[in-house]
Amino acid sequence: MSAPSRSRILLCFEYATLNGGEHSLLAVLKQLVAGEFDFIAAAPPHGLLHESLQKLKIPTVPLELCDDEGRKRDQESINQTLKSIIQDSEPALVHGNSLSMGRMLGRIAGETEQPMTAHLRDIVKLSGKAIDDLNQLDRLIAVSQATSDFHQKRGLSEDLMTVLHNGVDCEQFRPRVPSGKLKEELGLPAESFLIGNIGQICLRKGQDIVAEAVCRLIESFPELHLLFVGERHSQKAESREYEQQLHSCFEEAGLSNHVHFLGYRSDIAFILNEIDLLVHTAQQEPLGRVLLEGAAVGCPIVATTAGGTAEILEHQVSGILLPPGDADLLEHVLRDLVPDVRRQSQLGKAARERMLVLFPVEKSAAGLRAIWRQLLYKQS
53 is in which domain, residue-wise? Predict the structure, then answer.
């Protein structure tokens, strides 16, 4: 039996930016656009996500959840907008690319005929009402077992839950000989040792831990340079103060020339091949996309055990895993690892091999295709 031919799937996105969740679904869509599904996306009509959808030739309809002043629209207005988009686009299935979008779809699930699915890409405590909303969907797709376990313990239905790891394009993200161009860009000598921290600058990502550890190490390893790749999105005062704290850590030690804020970069595959070590100090991480990408290029990785990270990397085999929030332990690990080129190579090679077997994007795409096909069979 085959699924209905050319089934239309409506993809709903909340934000205009490209973060891990957006990159993960886009990577899968590249595998699926030429297949049995026709995609249409409801998304903000501007920004990097919109541009990426256009490159994939996925038509879009505008979905703006905030007013002109950036305030979220009221619930009833959002409900009516989503119902109108669904009515006009006539999809066979509707998918939300985030937990919050899944909740919005859950609120209207009883008023539409189409099956609805959503990705769970967050490990956050939910209210009873949020859990009830999500439990109205036909399938919840958790990006890690850790994410699934967390939410099931708090009331999300086990019967609705499927674990499907994100995948990585192991051809796009593959080992390359460092060109030295990033060091040239930053005006650094060839013998510099680059430690990269890649991700949105926010408290949850724990960048203060790697900043503190690297500051302490520079006296012993003056060739060390720390690169923060990513932006701060939150405008909250505490988030602004947190970003300034990262600058101050190096300024107060007289080491400002050893930290570099690169902002948002679209050339992550290039950067991962240019740095010597990826350090990921997240306090919570459902399934860190940059860890998949870093492992795929064979970059040695030190990361926290938060969330689903232990599902990506095997401690002391394909990465070194530490508890979150421990700058002292991170300093100790880096003090041993930075001069050990052989150990770095072992970790990087093992990580690459693990990605090729367990996390290729083709595997993730096949899993998502199977979930959607199953629901479409039921519907037909």
Answer: 7-167+360-379
